[in-house]
Amino acid sequence: MSLSARNPEYPIDPLFVERWSPRAFTGEPIDEPTLFSLFEAARWAPSANNAQPWRFVYARSGTAAWESFFGLLNENNRVWAAKASALVVLVSRKTNLRKGDTVPTPLRTHSLDAGAAWASLSFQALRSGWHTHAIGGFDREKAALVLDVPEGYHVEVAIAIGRQGDPATLTPDLLARERPTERLPLKAIVAEGRFAFEA
Ligand SMILES: Cc1cc2nc3c(=O)[nH]c(=O)nc-3n(C[C@H](O)[C@H](O)[C@H](O)COP(=O)(O)O)c2cc1C
Q1: CA-nearest residue, atom 6 of ligand 1
Q2: What is the pLDDT of residues 134-159, one digit of tens each?
């Protein structure tokens, strides 16, 4: 399936169908101002109580920190993420210290809010000529240890950032999967009035 086959049912900004998660990256370096413009976009995401529970820890390829980030990934993700330009680990704070309080209260939406920030980062990456690929297949416990994530934080996801590369560099099985995915139809995910979906 090509990008042009991603047909929205209603008019939307092309950004939403143009974002997808390739695995073929060029391996070229990403400079910090470029990377930080992606974090900047993430910073403006909405969150409950404006608690902004997201935290981004990153390593750029070729830097001292890269190997420790790369070593967190499952083997099947290492195969392709080796050519990413940056790896980011997104962490969220599970509690919120509200103004005037001395004890933090649980923040039920910490993962939801972090997800909004990840989406913003991903769309900005596309606008800036880069691609992102979220990675759930990594060792979260090891990430907490290696990256000094304190108690009270949840390791959410890793994110590979890179420039889209030549699919021919991928292994045959990954090459076969190197295409934009489809989506459920709107009627399968939206209902008026009650939860009227087929199981
Ligand atoms: C939380 C999360 C975890 C994911 N984990 C992996 C992963 O470990 N390995 C991988 O290759 N892709 C991973 N993906 C990518 C998804 O498979 C991909 O986003 C999904 O198939 C939709 O395709 P698209 O992003 O190209 O639109 C992950 C995506 C998300 C959001």
Answers
A1: 135
A2: 999 999 999 999 999 999 999 999 99
